[in-house]
Amino acid sequence: MSKIVVDFGLCESNGVCMGIIPEVFDLDDQDYLHVLTDEVTPDNEERVRESVRQCPRQAIAIVE
Ligand code: SF4
């Protein structure tokens, strides 16, 4: 099962990933990013991969 991993040292909390797939990525009131589910599923895979591509900090990875 592939997992979504965020490098919080790189993340700048700009919300790009949340804009693509809000059921996986959520920014809280303190601008802290939460990964709501770290499993890559057939349902979310296309948009998770899009968020990996679009993250301006290249902070998101998929670990096989
Ligand atoms: S797109 Fe990247 S930098 Fe922006 S909030 Fe998501 S993980 Fe952080």
Defining key terms:
single chain; two-stranded antiparallel sheet; 64 residues; Alpha-Beta Plaits; alpha+beta; globular; binds iron/sulfur cluster
3D structure, described in words:
Pfam families: Fer4_15. One of its GO terms (molecular function) is 3 iron, 4 sulfur cluster binding. InterPro entries: Fe-S_cluster_ET. This is Ferredoxin. Keywords: 3Fe-4S, Electron transport, Iron, Iron-sulfur, Metal-binding, Transport. This protein has one domain (3-63): Alpha-Beta Plaits (2-Layer Sandwich). A two-stranded antiparallel sheet has the order 1-4. A two-stranded antiparallel ribbon has the order 2-3. The longest helix is centred in the C-terminal third of the chain and has 10 residues, at 45-54. A hairpin with a 5-residue loop joins strand 2 and strand 3 (33-35). 23% of the residues lie in helices and 22% in strands. The chain contains two helices and four strands; from the N terminus they run βαββαβ. The radius of gyration is 11 Å and the shape is globular. The chain has 64 residues and is α+β, with helices and mostly antiparallel strands. Bound molecules: iron/sulfur cluster. Residues 6, 11-17, 25, 33, 55-57, 59-60 line the site of iron/sulfur cluster. The site of iron/sulfur cluster has 15 residues, from helix 1.
